[in-house]
Amino acid sequence: MGSPVLELRSISRREAGTTIVTEVDWVVQPGEHWVVLGPNGSGKTTLLRIAGLLLHPSEGTVRVLGETLGRTDVRLMRSRIGYSSAALADSLRPTITAEDVVVAALHGALEPWWHEYRDEERETARALLDQVGCSHRRNHRFGTLSSGERQRVLVARALMSKPELLLLDEPTAGLDLAGREELVAVLGVLAAHPTTPPMALVTHHVEEIPVGFTHGLLMANGRNIGSGPLEVVLTDENLTRCFGVEIRLNQSEGRWSARVDQSTQ
């Protein structure tokens, strides 16, 4: 199996006197694709930012790609991690083209102005846009793309530096049904490809878990309340504990759905 790609031990994070994450353990092995699932305010995004070396924990040990936080240059380590979030989308100039959004990731930049890019690097950006179904939009301004297209472009951007770990923070947030399904399908294709690095996807909804994702981490009130293979951790009981209401879970053709059990309300 090899060494873990990500290893978080007894992670806690406090901000302004409020505890956001409490004593969370999480280990991602090579070849695994994780969904981090839980309600609003459960600490999912904070945990992912710690995993992406964008935040330091208040307590605990963070090891990513064999390096320990506090004993390594995080600037170099971040170049080995693909990270996408809604905050990133808001940081991008609306008039930048989709291709430039992707290729600028080579240097961790938001604009292509400060660096020169070789023809083969731009060709890689175009191939990634094709992989996420947006090759026809490569010369379009980022701000003119649909919400779903913007999220798929950001996935391509996260892959541009050939990362060894891919972290996606709520990429389906705010998407309509068509946009969500297109993005979930893209992530399912990525999960099936042997060259795709281990992924972790933050979401509130089991319906947004792509086919091919292997493991789940359930968060509630800043704590890990269940983690492991999806078929083990995704149960009615665990989701009920996670969301605080009686939930009934269904699975069909590799996709999940959930509803509140009205008979108990």
Description:
With 265 residues, the chain is α/β, with parallel strands linked by helices. It is 30% helix and 28% strand. The protein contains 9 helices and 12 strands. The protein has helices at 44-51, 74-78, 86-91, 98-103, 119-131, 147-159, 177-192, 230-233, 236-243; strands at residues 6-15, 18-28, 33-37, 59-64, 67-68, 81-84, 165-169, 199-203, 215-220, 223-229, 247-252, 255-260. The strands form 3 sheets. The chain has a 6-stranded mixed beta sheet with strand order 6-7-8-3-9-10, with helices on both faces. Helix 5 packs across helix 6 and helix 6 (147-159) runs parallel beside helix 7 (177-192). The mean pLDDT is 92.
What would a concise description of this structure say?
The chain is an alpha/beta fold. It has nine helices and twelve strands. It starts with 5 loop residues before the first strand and ends in a 5-residue tail after the last strand.
